[in-house]
Amino acid sequence: MACASLVIHNGTILTMDSSASVIERGYVLIRDGAIAAVASGDPPPLKDGAAIDAERGVIMPGLVNGHTHAAMTLFRGLADDLPLMQWLERYIFPVERRMDAAFVRAGAMLACAEMIRSGTTTFCDMYLFEQEVAAAARQAGMRCLVGEVLYDFPSPNYGPLERGFAYTEALIDRWAGDDLVSVAVEAHAPYTCSPELLQRASRLAQQRGVPLILHLAETESETLQIQQRYGLRPVEHLERLGVLGPHLIADHCVHLNAAEMDLLAARGVRCIHCPESNMKLASGIAPVPALISRGVAVGLGTDGCASNNDLDLFGEMDTAAKLHKLQQRDPTAMDAVTVLALATREGARALGIGALAGSLEAGKRADLIVLDTRQPHLVPLYHPISHVVYAARGGDVRHVVIDGQVVLRDRRFTTLDLHAVLSAAEEMAGRVRRWVAEG
Ligand SMILES: [Zn+2]
Fold first, then answer.
1. Mind listing the pLDDT tens digit for each residue in 101-133?
2. Pick from 150, 189, 153, 182: which is nearest to 166 by CA?
3. How far is the centre of ligand 1, averaged over its atoms, from the C-alpha of 127 (Å)?
4. What is the per-residue pLDDT for 84?
5. Which of 11, 13, 57, 66 could be bridged to 272 by S-S, CB 3.0 to 4.6 A?
6. What pairing do the DSSP bridges indicate for beta strands 270-273 and 298-300?
7. CB neighbours of 265 closer than 8 A, spacing ≥ 6?
8. What is the pTM of this model?
9. CA of 213 to the centre of ligand 1 (A)
10. How far is the CA of 191 from the centre of ligand 1 (A)?
11. Looking at residue 3, what is its pLDDT?
């Protein structure tokens, strides 16, 4: 339960409000899970609450992971440096064919532990058995947007597609009105989903007032496949199907031309950038600066652990900033404030929760983290936002508050038993080894 009042004080506050204002020595006052005040100096005395001394560290919004497959933590390091089809057929498919709810629950709990410990307070998930992911997030106290993946082939969870739509609707009903868990309709990608599936998923999302999420324009081969099948590029294909709109969150968005970017902006589509996954799978570099300049809401995601191999958004920010500078041969491209915004305010906007989270402003829910900056790699501290993007790591996160609840205090979890989470994941890894050997 959240304390009636909680104050985090004696820290440098990165508000990440629209002007990214920084408060040198201030406090954040929380009442009933919401931010009541963000101010400089000492907090007012509290009669009924708790206090956390940030010890002159950084107080900032919790990070928003815009795209992941949480349970794929159980695939971390299983098989790297392989061509995509070999990786899928030899390692991923044999496991996914046999996995069950308990497997996904164990992987999702591991992911929640990793994300909280590295400062992520909200994540957006796409996978199988998503009821388990929602339940894991609820248990860990994390904010999330989840959805069951739909595609043209039978699923190890729900079987035929028809039951996938029923599962999605049941998920939407089950979590309606929840403080932390929201549900989306999630179609895998234009190359794995028929036009009928995409249109039906889009209609369902609009009817239920929830986002539609899909992977879009991730690889060159996707573009070629869609062109061969439909005579159009992936974004044009979705436009013709009437699927592009402000309800759509598109993951990756690597292979876009200028006209497609204009179209995404005109339709109000939101995008999630996953630079480390795109690098590891050699997919390409998403044109993020060009999307931002068109006003598109862009968030940052790690993608699953099979293609990253961690869920640390601090590393992801560092990579994003440097990747675009290198690509543009311009050290001023994707500056630290822009990149931190992708992982906070803009990431929340991209997920449709910009009014709730993503910055430290009175009235928003209290999702925040405290970094310990008294460490050799963070001293001296001239520009805290630069430090957060270029020098800090997930391991520097000391306290985490989500919806007013302290879920990590002095790097110790208050909502989950880390030993049990790690043991369950190791047990599942034994199954993964067996299933891969059996083929
Ligand atoms: Zn993905």
1. 999 999 999 999 999 999 999 999 999 999 999
2. 150
3. 9
4. 81
5. 66
6. parallel
7. 291, 294, 295, 296
8. 0.98
9. 10
10. 14
11. 53
